[in-house]
Amino acid sequence: MAIIVAGGGIAGLSFALTCHEIGLDVQVYEAASEIKPLGVGINLQPNAVRELYQLGLEQDLRQIGIEAEEWALLFYGAHPVWSEPRGTLAGYNWPQFSVHRGQFHMRLLAKVRERLGDACVVSNARLSHYDNHVSGVTAYFTKADGSSFSREGALLVGADGIHSNVRQQMVPDQPGVHWGGAVMWRGVSRYKPPRTKNSFVMVGGITQRFICYPVEPLDSNGETSLNWIAELRPDDSRSVDQSDWNKPAQPEAFMSEFLDWTFDWMDVPDIVAKAEGIWEYPMVDRDPIESWLDGRVVLIGDAAHAMYPHGSNGASQAIVDGRVLGAAIRAQGVTPAALQTYESKLLKPINELVLRNRGEGPLGVLINIEERIAAGSSIEEALNPSEIAEFMAKYKEAAGYARDEINAAPALI
Fold it and tell me: In whole angstroms, what is the distance from residue 320 CA to residue 37 CA?
């Protein structure tokens, strides 16, 4: 029997390509009637890029994305706090790529259909529930018209996102999404990138910030699709039960707080004014759970560990999940024991990472800086370069992309 994957997003499609690589039958079921290129920019860290290269996607990444070479953090008023090289400039054996999420998703989908056949991905099929058996699992799906069907499989991989029905059946009493109070307005503008041609830039602090980075190669005019995020912590209460990438918004919702954010090297109002579209997205995650397993059923990606985007590693971890799971299945067969091996390697550190990202992730250095300034220190006195360097190193280790460890690690498959 084939392995059933519920969810045709980045996690599910990456795992499907891994199954093809190691010679396993797999069938992907996606809830959406039509798989579209949703979302805006994401970053793919070197640990995930290594796996994508092995899956044969290097040229795709170079065609649709751009290698990130700098990560720069600046306090309110654009006062420099920290900058560091990224990817190969930082000594990694693999780059870090910034890409448009939708374009990357479409490339994964095309590769799956090319290698496994069009019939491998079934749309308009939302998993409703499942039944475990001694030698397999039955997955039940519903269509948009209300009709339903079921499929038998050897394993069920829940890759059905932050509102996962697979997870809901595993832990029915767990609360829904967790909102920490921040709202992001995201967009893409045709623009010349600030600082360098491929810098990730964050300006602001804990309560208000603006982030931008290019997500495709520069054109002949030096312009690119510049992904940007305006983030605020509004005083009003709002519902976040149905977070998605496709909730349109207008600049009036947030721009009054950014009107004076014009610097010699970056003009925030002008960037936002040239947006091709703006989407509102509450910053949400899910509380960690004690297990990602239920018999022959396992969770990966956001279904397992939806996290705040502070560390730019949600998509990367989804890819790594599928590779670690594939390696375990290759070693131990299509068995519950393989699922247990996968969980034993990732559950504890990734649950800790979810909570670490609630503490602002690598942006957490701003908490100490703001506290010191509030206590009377100047910005210069509040900065401690050695302290910041130590903080950043610890975050990379926790997130699974510490340079020396990645460079020395053997291939997962």
Answer: 22
Structural domain of 130: 3-39+102-176+287-360
What global pTM score does this model have? 0.94
Place of tokens 């397993």: 293
Q: How many domains does the chain have?
A: 1
Query: Amino acid identity of 395?
Result: Y
Q: Is residue 238 part of a domain?
A: no
CB 37 within 8 A of CB 166: no
Measured distance CA(164)–CA(401) in Å, rounded: 27
Integer Cα distance of 27 and 21 in angstroms = 14
Domain at 156, CATH number: 3.50.50.60
Residues counted in the chain: 413
What whole-number distance in Å separates Cα of residue 214 and Cα of residue 193? 6
Is 56 part of any domain?
no
What is the residue-level pLDDT of the chain in tens, covering all 413 positions?
A: 899 999 999 999 999 999 999 999 999 999 999 999 988 899 999 999 999 999 999 999 999 999 999 999 999 888 899 999 999 999 999 999 999 999 999 999 999 999 999 999 999 999 999 999 999 999 999 999 999 999 999 999 999 999 999 999 999 999 888 888 889 999 999 999 998 889 999 999 888 999 999 999 999 999 999 999 999 988 766 555 556 656 899 999 999 999 999 999 999 999 999 999 999 988 889 999 999 999 999 999 999 999 988 888 899 999 999 999 999 999 999 999 999 999 999 999 999 999 988 877 778 888 888 888 889 988 888 888 898 889 888 888 887 878 999 999 988 99
Cα–Cα distance measured from residue 131 to residue 152, given in angstroms and rounded to the nearest whole number: 10
Tell me if 189 is assigned to some domain: no
